[in-house]
Write a structure and sequence with these properties.
This protein has 14 helices and eleven strands. The protein has two domains: 10-260, Alpha-Beta Barrel (TIM Barrel), CATH 3.20.20.70; 269-333. It has helices spanning 32-40, 53-58, 87-100, 114-118, 129-142, 161-176, 199-209, 223-233, 249-260, 269-287, 293-303, 310-319, 323-333, 346-350; strands spanning 10-12, 15-18, 21-23, 46-47, 51-52, 78-83, 104-109, 149-154, 181-185, 213-217, 237-240.
């Protein structure tokens, strides 16, 4: 693979994002601490975890739920992703994201989770272009013109000709309605996360869209994956989802790979320890000392992928229930420096869907 020496800056509407490798919305993961660490490690843009329009409309200013809309200066530019069923309520949810300070409003037409589809949300909308485009128009109308609205889609409900036609009907109609960019995941809704993401479809979509902004998603677990998707498809940017959980280094590694042609070594155990501790500190700031351990346990399991003793470290993090437990894990497994290992995605692939897109 010929590596590009420079990559053009990604633009979303009137926003110059910069380096075109960004962090996707990850249901249950892409909260403020994860986004901040991704930004510090080279991600030029990140999206929050997907939120239901109904939830946002009913959301009260309570400490227990305040983390969903928490932003800081370091977080910008940041996207808020929205999912729902009814066009009117969808636009009301979008208004709440604007009021919270998100720089981009992203519409989720990609989630393949069964309970989501059963409630006519997420990827279900790819089966009904009229409703999908009504959601797009209402959302674009309610969001101030200076704030870009974007969409996350899969390549269709299934591989039928009818599904393909509906995909392009939504894509073309959305751009005509003023959508600034569309992210396409190379799997169908029916596939969920089984089988490879079809990157050749992304290439076809980009040829069809011309100068309009297309981002790609699916099977991005290493820096080489990110660069290869850009090179093979001609799209404008890629959104890293599962490959970024517990591995914020993927963004800096990809940047170095494109600039030098050389992949930097994986983070050492001391480097990993420092980031894990900072992640715990940020999560404590967000959730409070009484609630931090549950959300951090799933991140610890993901960070373990970069440790040479992955299986044992994973089990240790899975058992950690208090800050004292966390410190014991770090003292046991990260007390002596040494080389880490590259994340190859196997642990994430084996556990299936996390990104709901």
């Amino acid at each position: 693979m010929n590596l590009p020496t420079t990559l053009p800056n990604l633009r979303i509407g009137n926003l110059t994002i910069g380096f075109p490798i960004v962090q996707a919305a990850l249901s249950g993961y892409s909260d403020w601490p994860m986004r901040i660490l991704a930004r510090r490690h080279g991600a030029s843009y990140a999206l929050c975890e997907v939120m239901l329009d109904q939830f946002l409309v009913q959301l009260k200013d309570r400490k227990r739920t305040s983390h969903f809309l928490y932003l800081s200066d370091e977080d910008h530019p940041v996207g808020g992703q929205l999912m729902g069923a009814e066009p009117e309520q969808f636009s009301a949810g979008a208004r709440k994201l604007v009021e919270a300070g998100f720089d981009v409003i992203d519409i989720n037409f990609g989630c393949p989770v069964k309970k989501v589809l059963g409630r006519c949300r997420g990827g279900h909308h790819l089966s009904q272009p009229a409703v999908a485009l009504e959601i797009v128009r209402r959302t674009r109308d309610v969001v101030p013109p200076q704030i870009p609205v974007t969409i996350k889609m899969r390549r269709g409900i299934d591989d039928s000709a009818e599904s393909r036609d509906k995909f392009f009907e939504i894509l073309d109609g959305a751009f005509a309605a003023g959508i600034a960019a569309i992210t396409v995941h190379g799997r169908t809704v029916e596939q969920r996360y089984v089988g490879p993401s079809r990157w050749e479809f992304l290439r076809e979509v980009k040829r069809h869209a011309g100068e309009k902004t297309i981002l790609g998603s699916g099977d991005l677990f290493t820096p080489h994956d990110c660069v290869r998707m850009l090179a093979e498809t001609g799209i404008d940017g890629v959104t890293v989802a599962r490959g970024a959980i517990g591995n914020p280094w993927i963004f800096a590694q990809t940047r170095a790979l494109t600039e030098t042609g050389i992949l930097p070594p994986p983070p050492t155990l001391f480097q990993q320890r420092a980031v894990i501790l900072e992640h715990y500190r940020l999560a404590t700031e967000l959730y409070g000392e009484q609630r931090v351990d549950a959300p951090m346990r799933k991140f610890g399991i993901k960070y373990a992928v970069l440790h040479p003793e992955y299986e044992q470290v994973r089990e240790a993090f899975a058992r950690a229930k208090t800050q004292a437990d966390w410190l014991q894990v770090l003292d046991r497994w990260y007390s002596h420096d040494g080389p880490g290992v590259y994340a190859d995605g196997r642990a994430h692939k084996a556990q299936g869907s996390l990104s709901c897109g």
